[in-house]
Design goal:
Blueprint: E1 9-11, E2 17-22, H1 26-32, E3 60-64, H2 70-82, E4 86-90, H3 92-96, H4 98-102, E5 107-111, H5 116-125, E6 132-135, E7 156-158, E8 161-162, E9 165-166, H6 176-179, E10 185-186, H7 189-199, E11 203-206, H8 215-225, E12 231-236, H9 244-252, E13 255-263, H10 267-272, H11 283-292, E14 296-303, H12 311-322, E15 327-332, H13 340-347, H14 373-387, H15 390-396, H16 404-423
Parallel strand pairs: 2-7, 3-4, 4-5, 5-6, 8-11, 11-12, 12-13, 13-14, 14-15
Antiparallel strand pairs: 1-2, 9-10
The chain binds cobalamin and iron/sulfur cluster (SF4).
Cobalamin binds next to strand 2, helix 1, strand 3, strand 4 and helix 3.
């Protein structure tokens, strides 16, 4: 089960929940990893788009936790444990906080699950379940094809999702990927292509955190995508602006949107976050080059790191407008457990609390240096409101006329999301 991702839930007027993000891979991958010698009837529930079937009985309930969803995961675990189910917890939060997770489960899987999850299931079958299974990264060839039929039909804006690479070579101080020890690796290109053909969709999403870490690999992947005549979106770093050959190939292979962690308009803030390879002076060129190739830029910014002052909100909104960043996303600097940011702020006694449900990048959970928590929260919401005003949306979504419908839909979804942010009563705990 995937616990509540409520901030991504888009309730339509006739009550049907839709996630405006891509379909998750976690549950469908875990289902595909169930060994044939462990006969199982499997159900999946993603609480972003459906209710958890609390009324049902299960022998084993497996729950995936991000930090922000861990509190909800523990509630779900408690419910099913009381009904006699065996509870297994896994996911990045379990990797970062295994001792905490153990208190809420009969067994946990930290790290990668590819070897340990099948082992756990066999132990369960044989009545020999252990408390802690820790998985090291395994080679990514022959990766199982996710069982997407388990997900709710029609519930995701982007149902055709896959990954080609794992991990990242950078070490940004706030990021859970290096903290969780997710080492960089790649899947064989031909297997990725095979999976795309199997999925059958013509618009796909790569959910890799950084597709371009290995230039040669990325080039060969994009070359192999060209004959498929698909469109695709994914994540990469701002360094793409300096690589015209790569950008050209990405566009020719069908890339229509890129989510890029621009993080800040302030070079000092970027250096503080260990993301100095981002150069705000070059964001204009980046946006222009992407627009020229008809690639929508989803630009992510983080507010509240130690070099940010109150000017950061206005400066960011102005840059977003000026550069016509098609779909801007704002986040509050969040010290996820296990990260360098957490260690540093904890040592400085600046962690306000560990109510994990607020560790979702949309709430202030630490004491900022140059502003109060309230000012950070207000600035964050002010920036969102400015950038998603009708005027700004209209101005930005015209950057690539032929992509207007796509870009406009993305902006519309964020406008709905903003209402939810604003309706929240208690945003800060001190
Ligand atoms: C795709 C993705 C999403 C998708 C889908 C999320 C999902 N739950 O699947 C969407 C777009 C919805 C999303 C949203 C968010 N995400 Co996100 N996302 C990712 C991403 C890029 C890939 C995850 C993935 O699909 N991996 C492939 C699948 C197959 O594996 P997996 O889920 O990693 O799980 C493996 C193991 O952990 C294990 N496992 C996982 N769960 C379980 C459960 C059991 C029982 C077992 C046995 C094993 C197991 O098995 C898998 C195979 O080894 C990761 C980065 C990363 N590489 O981890 C960030 C990441 C998970 N996201 C992150 C964040 C912060 C967010 C958001 C808060 C961002 C935002 N501001 O909106 C939201 C929160 C969503 C929510 N529900 O509240 C952080 C989480 C940090 C943390 N400590 O919690 C990550 C690590 C990114 C980062 N750079 O730090 N995200
Ligand atoms: S924020 Fe992006 S670039 Fe930085 S370590 Fe995480 S995945 Fe890598």
């Amino acid at each position: 089960m995937l616990p509540d991702g409520r901030i991504h839930k888009l309730k339509l007027w006739f009550g049907h929940s839709v996630s405006f993000r891509e379909a998750p891979l976690t549950l469908t991958t875990l289902a595909a990893l169930i060994p044939e010698d462990v006969p199982a009837h499997v159900e999946a529930a993603d609480e972003s788009v459906q209710s958890i079937p609390f009324h049902k009985e299960f022998d084993l309930v497996a729950i995936s936790c991000l930090t922000g969803t861990s509190t909800r995961a523990y509630e779900i675990a408690k419910h099913f444990a009381a009904k006699g189910s065996v509870i297994v917890l896994g996911g990045i939060h379990v990797t970062l906080r295994p001792e905490e997770a153990k208190e809420h489960a009969h067994a946990i899987v930290s790290g990668c699950a590819e070897e340990q999850w099948p082992k756990l299931l066999r132990d369960f079958r044989d009545g020999k379940l252990k408390k802690h299974y820790h998985g090291h990264p395994v080679p990514l060839n022959n990766y199982p094809i996710p069982k997407t039929s388990l997900l709710k039909k029609g519930a995701y804006m982007n149902p055709h999702v896959l990954f080609a690479t794992r991990g990242c070579k950078s070490k940004c101080d706030f990021c859970s990927v290096p903290a969780a020890g997710l080492k960089w690796d790649t899947r064989p290109v031909e297997e990725v292509v095979e999976q795309i053909k199997l999925m059958g969709g013509k618009r796909i999403v790569f959910n890799d955190v950084s597709l371009l870490e290995d230039r040669e690999y990325a080039l060969s992947l994009f070359r192999a995508l060209i004959p498929l005549r698909i469109t695709w979106g994914g994540l990469c770093t701002s360094t793409i602006a300096a690589d015209d050959e790569m950008l050209d190939l990405m566009a020719r292979s069908g890339c229509i949107f890129l989510l890029i962690g621009l993080e800040s308009v302030n070079q000092k803030s970027l250096q503080g976050m260990h993301k100095g390879f981002n150069k705000p002076d070059e964001y204009r060129i980046l946006a222009q080059k992407l627009h020229k190739k008809k690639i929508i830029l989803m630009g992510c910014f983080i507010f509240g790191s130690d070099h940010d002052t109150l000017d950061v909100f206005r400066d960011t909104v102005e840059m977003v407008d000026e550069l016509k960043i098609d779909v801007p996303r704002y986040a509050i600097y969040t010290p996820f457990p296990g990260t360098e940011a957490f260690r540093r702020l904890e040592a400085e006694n600046r962690i306000l609390h560990t109510r994990w449900e607020h560790y979702d990048t949309q709430h202030v959970v630490f004491q900022p240096k140059n502003m109060t928590p309230q000012q950070l929260d207000e600035g964050f919401r002010w920036a969102y409101k400015q950038s998603y005003s009708i005027r700004s949306v209209w101005h930005r979504t015209k950057a690539i006329p032929s992509r207007f419908p796509f870009s406009f839909m993305g902006n519309l979804a964020y406008r709905i999301y903003l209402k939810r942010l604003d309706n929240e009563n208690q945003r800060i705990f001190l």
